[in-house]
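Checklist before submission:
- one chain only
- standard amino acids only
- sequence pasted in full

Submission:
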Amino acid sequence: MAARPRFTSRATVLVLVLCSLVAILAYPTRQFVSQRAEISAQRAKADHSRQQVEQLRREKARWQDPEYVKAQARSRLHYAVPGETPYIAVEPAGPAAQPSAPSAPAAPASSGSSAKAAKPWYTSIWDSVDAADSVALAPATPRPLPPSPVGDPTPHDH
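Returned file contents:
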């Protein structure tokens, strides 16, 4: 008996048909999978947007309450009710006031003009007041008072 070939013509045709089916279905399958992933991403984005809308609706409802508006004005803008005396605690600044605090790295000299432009106008005004105050608080040598006469008949305002 003669040896049979390993692949018959039927098997060869069957393998070619299967390979062509895989080649034909590969691209649509890849498109289907990528579209499903895109749909899933869009659903997640829509859910996130819905959550943001709900959060903004709740915040809008809070701003409709006059008591909430008053509380925000008091905390954010430092407003006070008539008859109240508002106080703002300011931490002392400068190297003499905070010796144990680590010093921040000094800004480069070339960014001086850009740093001034980045600061709000009221910060530069406050910095100038602080600078003027530090010059005024420089230690002065006390001057002795002139001797007063013992029997001075002129009245003094005390």
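Reviewer check: The mean pLDDT is 78.
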